[in-house]
Amino acid sequence: MKFNPRNRHVLVELVEETKEDKSTILVPDDYKPKEYGYGLAQILRIAPDCKQDFNNEDLIIIDKHMLIEIEINNIVFHLILENHIFGVMPNKERS
After folding, report:
1. How is domain 1-16+36-95 classified at the architecture level of CATH?
2. 41 and 74 Cβ atoms separated by less than 8 Å
3. How is the chain split into domains, by residue range?
């Protein structure tokens, strides 16, 4: 299903962060690691009225608290408003 965002929204795919565990540390069962309010995503589609200079496939740093998750027909879409994007990072695959 193709989804085209509107109203300054950007359709993104979240990029999983890889963390290397170099040692084993015992922690309590109820321990939760600190979650940061920002994350990495890849742009899939951009609303035509976005004012910023984004390109499809750009990697962006976003405010994860402002991420909108929409599920339709068992397909999940992630959207973010363009002003909740902190910045753009070079995509190594395109370089």
Report:
1. Roll (2.30)
2. no
3. 1-16+36-95
Instruction: Give the model confidence (pLDDT) of 77-94 as tens digits.
Output: 999 999 999 999 877 665
Q: How far is CA 78 from CA 21, 38, 53, in A?
A: 29, 15, 20
For residue 1, pLDDT over 80 is answered with no
pTM listed for this prediction: 0.77
In whole angstroms, give the CA distance from residue 78 to residue 95: 25
Distance CA 55, CA 24 (A): 41
Q: How far is CA 95 from CA 1, 53, 90, in A?
A: 29, 18, 8
